């Protein structure tokens, strides 16, 4: 296990934006990946189940998953955003929970708290000025 891997590559060339998530949030970035690529925005989706394992990899592998040339990055976290700043950088965005205590099916809670594919798409487009 390497801690992070490319789940879906950008369509039509090198990625313009990288979407990163873990666990249940991967389905959100996969939906956003599809939407962005259909809009002609080259998005890469990365599943990152373990910061620690990813950090243990050599620089070549880390650069192959999260190329430093791609500064437009969106991370999605159904929890506090702690730890994600290292991977989105100063130009990136983190979509995370700002409040807790909601009780409903996951899709309902995610929608109510702004954890949606549409929110990921909006953040990516904002970063790219599109």
Global structural class: alpha/beta
**Assembly classification:** single chain
Largest sheet: 5 strands, mixed
**What share of the residues lie within helices?**
25-40%
What is this structure's SSE topology?
Elements (H helix, E strand, L loop, with lengths): L4 E4 L8 E5 L4 H13 L4 E5 L3 H5 L3 H7 L7 E5 L7 H4 L4 E4 L9 H7 L4 H12 L2
Parallel strand pairs: 2-3, 2-4, 4-5
Antiparallel strand pairs: 1-3
Helix pairs in contact: 1-6
Describe the protein's architecture and organization.
- The chain has 130 residues and is an alpha/beta fold.
- The chain has a single domain, classed as Rossmann fold (3-Layer(aba) Sandwich).
- It has 6 helices and 5 strands, in the order E-E-H-E-H-H-E-H-E-H-H.
- The chain has a 5-stranded mixed β-sheet.
- Helix 1 (26-38) links the parallel strand 2 and strand 3.
- The longest helix is centred in the first third of the chain and has 13 residues, at 26-38.
- The protein is globular, with a radius of gyration of 14 Å.
- The N and C termini lie far apart (35 Å).
- One of its GO terms (molecular function) is transketolase activity.
- Residues 3-116 form the Transketolase-like C-terminal domain.
- It catalyses: D-sedoheptulose 7-phosphate + D-glyceraldehyde 3-phosphate = aldehydo-D-ribose 5-phosphate + D-xylulose 5-phosphate.
- It comes from Candidatus Thermofonsia Clade 1 bacterium.
């Amino acid at each position: 296990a390497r801690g992070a891997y490319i789940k879906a590559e950008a369509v039509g060339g090198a990625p313009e934006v990288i979407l990163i998530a873990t666990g249940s949030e991967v389905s959100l970035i996969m939906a956003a990946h599809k939407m962005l690529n259909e809009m002609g925005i080259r998005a890469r989706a990365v599943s990152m189940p373990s910061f620690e394992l990813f950090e243990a990899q050599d620089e070549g592998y880390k650069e192959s998953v999260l190329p430093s040339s791609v500064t437009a990055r969106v991370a999605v976290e159904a929890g506090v955003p702690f730890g994600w700043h290292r991977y989105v950088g100063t130009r990136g965005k983190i979509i995370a929970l700002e409040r807790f205590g909601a009780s409903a099916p996951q899709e309902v809670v995610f929608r109510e708290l702004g954890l949606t594919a549409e929110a990921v798409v909006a953040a990516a487009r904002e970063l790219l000025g599109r």
